[in-house]
From TrEMBL:
Annotated ranges, domain Fe2OG dioxygenase: 171-279
Keyword Metal-binding: yes
Keywords, ordered alphabetically: Iron, Metal-binding, Oxidoreductase
Record's protein name: 2-oxoglutarate-dependent dioxygenase DAO
């Protein structure tokens, strides 16, 4: 996996309208139930879908990407103040030999204004950057609602309502903003696939919600092995994707797609914004009894999420692209 790049097919990821317009989203209504079935079907068949979610306005998204650009435009020594040693998914990452065209910043609990302010204080001294903090916090908070809607629908659709409260407090949020830019030097263009700016991987947590600037490039692999290129069909779209922990917790019911980012003939940098819902570090991912039976034997040993992250990441980047089965598969 990863060495031979197959061109994306004409397939599209499913589209689900989770905006409040034209119908309000209320649990228990026929509209909710119909969307719930669509979410389950999309997760089972693709492990991802495009969600329209109009709560986050076009203006806010544009302000967020201005803030993200401002962040990456800081001088390198300033950005390096946010490095968190020995982690891949937190703090600043850039100039990495395995990911030469990728930079990112990760921070925990972006739905709390204080966390974003603390992060901004590290980079902009003298009071941080209030505009940045406000924009990043607002979008994170809004799309955490989308995450909770999706998870509520998933739990209901598998008859797991009794775990709802426990499940919602089992998780935490992590934000990562990313910049991809193919450097214009001939040496790098001789590599196997110069456009592959983020290698094939699965996400480690439960749910990932992503949006991007106008530069595309995100691609998913279907269960059948075909690559699908994602192009948002509406300015209020987010991509919602299932990660390893959701696959394990639901005892394999949902697909957890391989995905990657390739920049195809674009000279502009690509920026993306990802809210990652993960189990809290100390929590154990263990499939509920309701999802284990003769037809669905337990697929994974229960595992502590933090231990999984430790084995799945190394300082050198992602150690393997499918560690879940390798470490915990039964
Ligand atoms: O930038 C993107 O759209 C994808 C990022 C991604 O897959 C990740 O950070 O895990
Ligand atoms: Fe990812």
């Amino acid at each position: 996996m990863g060495s031979i790049i197959v061109a994306p097919s004409d397939l599209k990821v499913p589209f689900i309208n989770l905006s409040k317009q034209p119908h309000d989203l209320k649990p228990g209504t026929p509209h909710w139930d119909s969307l719930k079935s669509q979410v389950r079907e999309a997760f089972e068949n693709y492990g991802c879908f495009e969600a329209s979610f109009d709560k986050a306005s076009r203006e806010l998204r544009s302000d967020v990407f201005d803030s993200v650009e401002e962040l990456f435009d800081l001088p390198l020594p300033t950005k390096q103040r946010a490095v968190v040693p020995d982690t891949f998914h937190k703090g600043y990452m850039g100039q990495h030999p395995i990911y030469p065209f990728y930079e990112s910043f990760g921070l925990d609990d972006p739905t709390l204004l204080e966390s974003v302010q603390n992060f901004s204080n590290t980079l902009w001294s003298e009071g941080g950057n209030p505009g940045f903090s406000k924009n990043i916090h607002s979008l994170s908070e809004m799309i955490s609602e989308l995450d909770q809607t999706v998870r509520r629908m998933i739990l209901e659709s598998y008859g797991l309502e009794k775990y709802m409260e426990e499940h919602m407090s089992f998780t935490s949020y992590h934000l990562r903003v990313m910049k991809y830019e193919v450097a214009d030097d001939s040496k790098s263009k001789e590599t196997l696939d110069p456009k592959l700016v983020l290698r094939v991987h699965t996400d480690k947590g439960l749910i990932t919600l992503l949006c991007q600037n106008e530069v595309g490039g995100l691609e998913f692999q279907t269960k059948e092995g075909e690559w699908v290129s994602y192009q948002p069909t509406s300015p209020s779209s987010f991509i919602v994707l299932a990660g390893d922990a959701l696959h394990a917790w639901l005892n394999g019911r949902v697909h957890y797609p391989y995905h990657r980012v390739r920049l195809c003939g674009n000279d502009k940098p690509r920026y993306s914004f990802g809210l990652f819902t993960t189990p809290k570090a100390e929590n154990t991912v263990k499939a509920p009894q309701e999802l284990i039976d003769e037809q669905h034997p337990l697929l994974f040993k229960p595992f502590v999420y933090k231990q999984y992250l430790d084995v799945a990441y190394t300082q050198a980047g992602r150690k393997e692209n499918a560690p879940l089965r390798a470490f915990y598969g039964l």
